[in-house]
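Render Nitrilotriacetate monooxygenase component A in 3D.
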Amino acid sequence: MSKPLKQIHLAAHFPGVNNTTVWSDPAAGSHIEFSSFVHFARTAERAKFDFLFLAEGLRLREQGGRIYDLDVVGRPDTFTVLAALAAVTDRLGLTGTINSTFNEPYEVARQFASLDHLSGGRSAWNVVTSWDAFTGENFRRGGFLPQEERYSRAKEFLATAHELFDSWRGDEIIADQVTGTFLRDAKAGAFVHQGQHFDIHGRFNVPRSPQGRPVVFQAGDSDEGREFAAAGADAIFSRYSTLKEGQAFYTDVKSRLAAYGRRPDQLLILPAATFVLGDTDQEAAELAREVRRQQVSGATAIKHLEFVWNRDLSAYDPEGPLPEVDPVVSEDHISRGRAQVRMYRDPVAVAREWRQLAEANRWSIRDLVINTGNRQTFIGSPRTVARTINDFVQADASDGFILVPHITPGGLDPFADKVVPLLQEQGVFRADYEGTTLRDHLGLAHPDADAEAGSRTSASPARAAS
C-alpha cells in the first residue's frame, strides 16, 4: 500500500539585511514603505501560504570597523510591521524574529500575546540568539555571550515566556460588558520565576490568546540549536538545499524528539529556498546566472573573501586572481565584534581549496564567490520547480519551504501565479485555508490540547493498575 502524499507547507520571507536582493532591478521596491509589506503579504495570502516571515536586524552591518552599504538599512521594527499587517490580512500567519539575548521575557511575551489577539491567532516567534559584540553595544548589558550561555539563556527565556502565556490558562474568562475589561480571580496572570538568568514575579496582563501561545520557530543548526528545537520549537529553519543534505538534517532532528516526549509531526522542518522561474528550464538557467552576477558585485565579492582571509583585501581587483597570501588565523576577526566566532574552522585549508578551484576553472575572485556562494535552490519552468519541491517533501528532505525572492515586493507573484496552481493540481497543497489560526495551517495542536493528551497518557498506567 503506497504512503499517502504529504501536504506541502509554504511560507514567504521578506528579506531584510541581505546581499541577495537585486537592488538594481527596476522592479525592486522600498524595504521601509508599508505598501511593500502589504503587497508581499497579500500575494502570500492569495497563494494560501502558511505565513509571512520577517527577520530582525538590531544593528548596521560593519566590517573592519566601518559601516558598509551592501545591506539594506532603515528596516522598520518587526512587531510594528506585523501588527499593521494583521489589519490588512485575514488568514496569513505573521512570524517575527525576536532576539532572546538582548530582550526580556515579560516584554516579548506581552508583545506576542497582543499580536496573537490582534490577528485572531496568527502570530509566531522565531527565537534567535546573538553572538556579536557590536550588536551588544546597542544594549545596556553590552558585549556578547559565549555560545553555551546564549543557548542556556534562550532555553530559560522561552520557558519563562511559556510560563507567562500559561499564567491565564484554566481561568474562566468573564468580560465586563460595560467597560470591556476582563474580570478575573486573584490568581489570574500570577507568575513567579527564579532561575539562572531571570528572577521575576508579578502579574501577566494579557489574557490567554487564541493560539494559547504563539507558534515557536528556531533557526540554529548547531547541535545545541537542534536540541533546543527538539525540546520546544514547533518548526525549525534549515539551510540545506540538496536532497541528500536535507534528508540527513530531517532524520537527525526528528530523531531527537522522542527524548522530549514528542512525536515527529510536532516539529516541522522548513528550509529557506530561493527560486528563478522561466518559460523553459534553459531560459530559467540563463536568468539564474544573470541574477547571481547581479547579486555578487565586485565589492560584495571582496567582502565575502575577507571573511576567510581575515585581512583587508580592498586593494585587490575582484575580476583578478585570488590573493597569494594566506588568511590571518586569529581570534580577532576582521568583522569587528566577532572575536570568538570564526566564520570558517580552517580558513587556510579553505583558501587552498578555493585557489585550486579558481585555477582549474579560470575564475576571478568574483567568479569564485558567485560559484561557491548560495545559489538559487529551485531553477526551472514552473512545472519543473513544482515537481522538484514536491519531490523534496515526499522524500522527507523537508516539510515545505520558506521562499525568498530576489526581488521585493513583487518577486513572489510569479511563484504564486504559476507554481502554486500546479501544486494544487497534484493535491499536495491547499486550495483554500481550512482554519483560521497559524496552528491550523501548520497542523499543530493547541498547547492546551497537547497538555491534556499528555495528562491522559501519563495517567493511564495508574488507572490500569487500579
